[in-house]
Amino acid sequence: MPDLFKLVLQVAVVLATCRAMGFLFRKIRQPRVVGEMFAGILLGPSLLGWMAPHFSAYLFPPQSLGFLNALCQIGLIIFMFLVGMGINTKELKHEGHAAVLTSHVSITAPFVLAAALAVYLYPHVSDRSVSFTAFALFMGAAMSVTAFPVLARILTERNMLQSRLGTVAIACAAVDDVTGWCILAYIIILVRAHASPTPLWITLTGIVAFGFVMVYGVKRWLDRLLTEFQMRGHLSEGLMARILLFILVSALFTDYLGLHLLFGAFLMGAIMPKEPQFVRYVIDRFEPITVTLLLPLFFAFTGLRMSVGLIHGREMWMYCGLIILVATVGKFGGSMLASWLAGMPLRDAAGLGLLMNTRGLMGLVILDIGLDIKVISPALFTMMVLMAFVTTFMTNPLLDLICPGESIARSASPVVSRPSTQSSLTPKSPNSSVA
Amino acid sequence: MSTASRNFLIAYFCLVILPITGLLGILKHSRNLVAPISIGGTWKIIADPGSLAGLPCGKSLASLQDASITVSQSGKDLTIALPSSFRNNASGRLDGSILTASFLPLETPSGNSACGDDPAVSLTATVDPKSAPRSFFGTLSIPACSTCTSAAVHAVREEPVANKAGE
User: Fold this and answer.
1) How is chain B split among helix, strand and coil, in percent rounded to 5?
2) Is residue A323 a contact partner of residue A117, using CB atoms and an 8 Å limit?
3) Which of A101, A109, A129 is closest, CB to CB, to B167?
4) C-beta separation of A122 from A136 below 8 A
5) Chain B partners of A375 at a C-beta cutoff of 8 Å?
6) Complex ipTM value
7) Share above pLDDT 90 across residues of chain A, in percent, rounded to a whole number
8) pLDDT value at position A65?
9) What's the predicted TM-score (pTM) here?
10) Which of A52-56, A257-261, A318-322 has the weakest average pLDDT?
């Protein structure tokens, strides 16, 4: 039985810390999510456990973390559904060569550099329970992901969502996320294939069959939801409950097939109708409790699993610096170079590179899975979380430098006049939370 | 084909296709890279109580008898969570199959001049990479204690790492 008092206390402390850090980070012009990520680090062994070990042990005893994790996973399932809902890869078609080239280079450049770095890091921070292929592919996936929701939030705050730069960035981030999750799925299959008694071909067939049923069966039923919404202007409680049930069943299926709960939730979101008002309506119903209550718990849980103390000695800090450098050069440099070659002005290209370098929560979700399936060691997990935090943190100040107000105003002239679905994952008021 | 399309194809080949080829090359040529032996997980310590008692400065060593320690591995670097009679999170290192670690007991022995100033307990062991479940054999000693002999220690991993992707 869970210790309910302890669990409620944990939730209260996590919420209070996340809100406080979110507020403070807003004061230094950072998205609230960066403050919440930082709050998670503060609550873990890196600070609270180091400064007040007894209080930390009282507040987060190891036996209580299972319940906290269960709440986190439910939050992540709904969050990944919302991310999938906000993503519309068809938008890439409207953006032309610049977006196609930029999105593909923004994946391949950090991926190749991460694999090259993996050659150096593998003997130093991994062990023989992980194959080099799985290790290198995971490093690549974790470094090539872009935090789609954080990106949308930054663009909204800077009034850049409808600009050429904004639309290209959003389209590229959507492609990056879908690609990143496909690669992660492959890694999980690769890793689990060695441990699972089920033959690989059965797993693969199951995944393909499941994808087929979702895209050609469930999607049709979901399209009917859109018709219902357009007729009545809202969805009944019963229909909302059915959507939630489908999310959970889809998540359970992918987990049963040997992937991860989050893939099913993401796929469910991805096949939902993309009519902007419908997307906004559904997200408005699911988002508040997810981003204000459940996601902060995930930040805290991630913070509890990392410990800066694991990075000891000059050598380890050098690895950490290398990871941040390679991730930034690959993502920022690759995106900037590609968009510049595709005809974008250099300043806008640099801005796009910075936006694509934002990893935020999506990076943390992938890293969490990597630690769960033991592809990365605890010390490498800590380094990669720091990388995700630093690359997200640096985005706004560097954007201020590269794309100051005047530049934004000029490039903010809409090139595509259409309602935004991307803002669906961003709250309406600047003070509300976002993942 | 327009100039823009041709330039796009050239850029796509140079920035996407070539790097992917490079990636495949890296994966192919580096798949035989060797990482340290996996020793992460929970280990059950099996030591001879008689020999542990023979360490006059190592009263706290008695708590290691049949105790479990949790090893968190990051390459060659190890972080070891110990029983409560030791200060938590000792650090260790794995060089090849040789495991070395140093533990600090919570209580320092007093009144015994032979114990020296440093109460640290040292573990040196050899991991058997072929054993299943994985095990190590070694000795526990107190380097600062001139009169102490080493105590033999044997440990077996309780929960092997679940995902064997390459070992």
Assistant:
1) 25, 35, 45
2) yes
3) A129
4) yes
5) 163, 165
6) 0.82
7) 42
8) 86
9) 0.84
10) A257-261
